[in-house]
Transposase (Streptomyces hebeiensis), 309 residues
Amino acid sequence: MRFPDGKSLRVERLSRKWARVKLSKLGWVRFRIHRSLGGAVRSVTLRRDGGHWSLSFLVDTGRAEPGVSLARGRIGVDRGVASAVVTSDADAGSGAGFFDRKFITAGESERYVRLQRRLVRARKGSRRRQRIRAAMATIMRRVRRRRADFQAQTARRLVSGNALVVLEDLNVRGMTASAGGTAARPGRMVAQKAGLNRAILDKGWYGLEMSLRNAARTTGARIRKINPAYTSQTCPGCGQVDADSRKSQAEFGCTCCAYTEHADVVGAKNTLAAGHGGYRTWSPPGIGRGREASTRPPGSRRATASAAG
Ligand SMILES: [Zn+2]
């Protein structure tokens, strides 16, 4: 539930930990304050997550968005098979550029699967069923919080030092599933995990994109999305496109030249190549020429064509 009219919203601090806000129809709502608001309130959103209620405030910090990033780097980001997020400058040897985090502990996942089984047997509308649901919701909430932390941290790392971050556009991926090389990366949901639902295992690609856009607002970095077709099959060394170059989920070995690399890193490299076609990083006024390529819509055809090379 959103309360948009910021000017009429009154927020009062009650103590170090508690504050209250006056919401239309609801009146005064007391809440635990986790950090200072740091700006004029624009709107308030009231959410319910299981038995927990939360309020989030959209504030105007008065800080203008930087128009252009002073960083010079550019980076491609791939949804990895082994790791959640892999960057174009990743090093399979040292593990740098491979971002992942387990959102659920072994104990929690065991417990969750057990609860799921018990839920099936519990009578509809019973107290027992309510208790089981609440216990499942608690685990889900922890998973969501860890995922949000992971996304925010990863986003900050990706944005820092980079003027351009290129991502796969998953909407495009969905539409071109057969051509998009998804056949070469089967089964993110393996059988052993079948007992856990998708919401728990999801690495949160959309959430990462949101976090990136959020983090980019403070640095001026650009986020661009490209059509991921052939990004897993194209050789960054010679440009040959061949599904057979993808030797396994983790291995890429070009069938044409001798290029070998971790398959996820290849995906990220090709994503970057597709996204920075025509892109210039910032240079002092008067030196650069040509228009900013980012005025084109993200994932445009021209960028895609250079990826398919
Ligand atoms: Zn090659």
User: Anything to note?
Assistant: Residues 173-192, 278-309 have pLDDT under 50 and may be disordered. The pocket of zinc ion is lined by residues 235, 237-238, 240, 254, 256-257, 259 (CB under 6 Å). Residues 73-308 form one domain. The CA atoms of residues 222 and 241 lie 28 Å apart.
